[in-house]
Design goal:
The chain is an alpha+beta fold. It has helices at residues 22-38, 53-64, 93-112, 162-171, 215-223, 247-251, 268-278; strands spanning 15-18, 45-49, 74-79, 84-89, 117-119, 124-126, 132-134, 137-141, 152-158, 184-191, 196-204, 225-234, 242-245, 264-267. It is built from 7 helices and 14 strands. Helix 4 (162-171) links the parallel strand 9 (152-158) and strand 10.
């Protein structure tokens, strides 16, 4: 288990474009997808401004109703104060595959403990300030399926985008979403060069009541989240360690089968197996 760390406060590299028309934005997105799929670029994020809420709605709906406004292999984040639409690109099979491998383990282990999670996929969640975001995958306790915010979110990215992906994770903890909000974000990072996979667990910054308020603690509070665990493995390397997601964090209750609570366990051995699938010969 690694020591806590926090995401960088400053915005990492993000390719920005002036928004003119939906077809022009689609052209820019398609071009970057081509670069990603051919390996000439690993940048997954594009920013467009100014984009109004009405235009965002039209773009979003057009992905699914046959208008093909933008490709389906995208996730959208919207900042109404700056009229900024951030488009995250997930066109690579490895990026799509890895969160499905993770999902299988999450749902399997939860069911083995007598509970169910409701997968909400890349559903859009909106904050009271108008900001909205789609996770790469998200889950709710079955007891409140389809209502409210997810308890756990998954964000996936290539190593070159790691700080941006971590900023996405932090977004889920900022603001007041009330009871039943996000408890855990799992960040999955793929390192193509090293053929390595890293899984990080991010949680809401704990209260500091009774603690000495250091500069590090102050920064952590401001960002709203902290990395609490990490497990990694390379396809051709040594695997060790594990990451444990507390059962009560994702389903709302502790295990009640009389055993010591272990939660959802993601071992380095499993991560290595996933790396062997994601990074074939």
């Amino acid at each position: 288990m690694s020591p806590p760390s926090t995401a960088q406060p400053d915005s990492p590299y993000l390719e920005s474009h002036k928004f003119t028309t939906i077809p022009q934005a689609r052209k820019i997105i398609d071009a970057q997808i081509d670069r990603l799929t051919t390996g000439t670029s690993r940048a997954q994020y594009l920013s467009f401004t100014p984009v109004t809420q009405d235009t965002l709605n039209k773009i979003d709906e057009g992905r699914w109703n046959g208008q093909r406004t933008i490709p389906k292999c995208t996730r959208l984040t919207y900042h109404p104060a700056s009229l900024e639409m951030v488009v995250k690109l997930l066109p690579l099979p490895s990026l799509e595959c890895v969160h499905h491998l993770l999902e299988f383990q999450i749902l399997l282990q939860t069911r083995e403990k007598g509970e169910k999670l409701w997968p909400t996929g890349g559903a859009t969640y909106k904050k009271s300030n108008g900001e909205s975001r789609e996770g790469d995958a998200s889950y709710q306790p079955f007891a409140r399926a389809g209502r409210g915010w997810p308890s756990m979110v998954v964000e996936v990215g290539l190593r070159e985008n790691v700080e941006r992906v971590r900023r996405d994770a932090v977004w889920w903890f900022r603001g007041d979403e009330g009871e039943g909000g996000v408890s855990v974000v799992l960040v999955v990072i793929l390192d193509v060069e090293e053929r390595k996979m890293v899984v990080e667990m991010w949680e809401r910054t704990p209260t500091v009541e009774g603690r000495r308020v250091t500069r590090r603690v102050t920064r952590s509070i401001a960002r709203g989240a902290v990395k609490t665990q990490e497990v990694s493995a390379a396809k051709d390397g040594v695997d060790e360690g594990e990451l444990v997601v507390g059962f009560e964090k994702v389903v709302g209750r502790r295990e009640c089968n009389g055993e010591v609570e272990r939660g959802i366990v993601i071992s380095a051995g499993e991560v290595k197996e996933w790396a062997e699938i994601v990074f074939p010969e």
